[in-house]
Amino acid sequence: METSDGQLLGDSLFINQMKTYANQFEHSETPFLIQKDRIWVYVNPAARKILEAEEDIIGQPIWNNLPNELHSLVEERIQTCDSGIAPKPSEQTWITQKGNRIQLEVIGFPLLFSTHATQIIIRNLTQQHLEKKETLDHLKLITENMIDIIGIVSHEGIFTYLTPSYFWVTGYTQSEAIGTTPFNLVHPEDRDRVIQEFSRMILEHVPLTIEYRYLKKDGVYIWLESKGTPISHKDNLSAIVASRDITKRKEAEAALRKNEFKHRIILDHSNDLICSVDPDGNYLYASLSYKNILGIEPNSLIGTNALNCVHLEDHDTVEKYIKLVASLENPLPLIYRKMHASGHSVLLEGKGMPMVSDEGDIEGIVFISRDITEKKKADEYIRNSEKLAVLGELAAGVAHEIRNPLTSIKGLFSLMKNSEIDQNKIHLYNDVICDELHRIESIVNEFMALAKPDATQYMKNVNIIQLLQDTVMLLTSEANLYNVEIRLLFKEKDLFVSCEKNQIKQVFINVIKNAIEAMNDGGILTIAIEETADQKVKLIFVDNGIGIEEERLKSIGVPFFTNKEKGIGLGLTVSNKIITEHKGHLKVESYPGKGTTVSITLRKTE
Questions:
Q1: Distance from C-alpha of 403 to C-alpha of 440, rounded to nearest angstrom
Q2: Which of 369, 432, 468, 512 has most Cβ atoms within 10 angstroms of its Cβ?
Q3: Residues 55, 97: contact at Cβ < 8 Å?
Q4: Known EC number(s) (predicted)?
Q5: pLDDT per position as a tens digit, 326-374
Q6: Do 287 and 273 meet the contact criterion of CB atoms below 8 Å apart?
């Protein structure tokens, strides 16, 4: 009876101490339990939640929450705690009140006020294990389906692991390859280099990236790019190696090098000046033709500004052109001058093309320029030839036009010899003589201006109205010979365009003469001028001559094609070229038996 009373007294004391001690864990988020004699004597709310204990489990055996395979381990750990020693934390599988298995981290401590009780802290690892398993499943799925080869190679150079992709790439199965060395399949010319790099990676513990040829099971070599990373596990050195088949890339690079070699030969032997500049205008490349055409070593230009070689007077023009190309516009070819190393200028015709990145950014500009000095001379020769032909035809008309006022002047001088004539008539005759002489002077000046050989000229602001009127005056006598009336349907005013005066006059003469000669039996040539909304001037020449058949109209402007019995057929060819060089447009429309309309569009001076 004394023993029972003592035991009851001890149990009561334990319960009071346990309640006081456990009270501090009642509202804690840390799951906390106490067992005594393999019976749960305290479980806080956080632990009840993990164990899915909707009913009170205090007083129930702890074995209800532990699978049979854990009983001996847990018993051993409890006894360790009873002896006053706290075992290391361990991962255990417990069973909830609902029968679900959960993964827990379990930490047990001896209870200070009782040698037969253990306090326990648990942490739920179930979600962590699920996430870990899911990650491992994903990794397995990736490695088993990836195209790249992932392998583990021991420090002796032996495969210890390979992904299934090794078979897809090389034709060797995993069982055939694991336990063998990959070095035996490396191309003999690459083998020593690969072994040396692998050894250096293992010894110096540094990663490597290497490209080499590898023998497939079918006897064909492929190119592999391998990236190795050294690893150490339990003092065993090895490497994870990721390999990728780069055969197609190597073939593409070889083809690119071959094409690049061909293009380099073409560039180096081209007679054109070919260069590329960065967005700031600095040379990135210059072809060997710079030496032949400009006397400049191409390599000396790299890094310098492209404008350094451009004639000072053309700097602004070239800068504007570069801006147009950089803004992704497509301007017409540019005629400009570059300076030869000896100091003289070289006339060039150039075209620029932007180099655009995949993101749409301008990375630079490529220029192709051609020396047109000789071509310019040939063009001038053709123009002068055409001009001489025109002059020959004009000579008779001009002579006729001059003869009329000379006859008048001669007659007036005869009258003035009469001593009986009064002074008033003499003054009148003098005025008439002066007017006739002025007319002769104007005709001769226009004729001489046309006959004068063209020097190299530059664009000037020219009054197009005045220029057209002067040209009509020059051709009036020829129009009279053909009984053609020239009507000007525009008011006299100042209207300026930027042009080379004599060249545009030559165009007007060619067009007006063609119209006059198309009206053998007489007719009317109407000339009108329109100002368009886009800052352009349109000159329209309309005749009511014989017109041009549709088939012949297609050949208009083709050199040496002509409808005339005489002539060499260069008039409209030269005219069209002149207008094009002025960034204008020449258009011919004709209807057989009704007449022809020629329209010329030029830019107004801004």
A1: 9
A2: 512
A3: yes
A4: 2.7.13.3
A5: 887 777 788 899 999 898 888 988 888 888 877 778 888 888 888 887 7
A6: yes
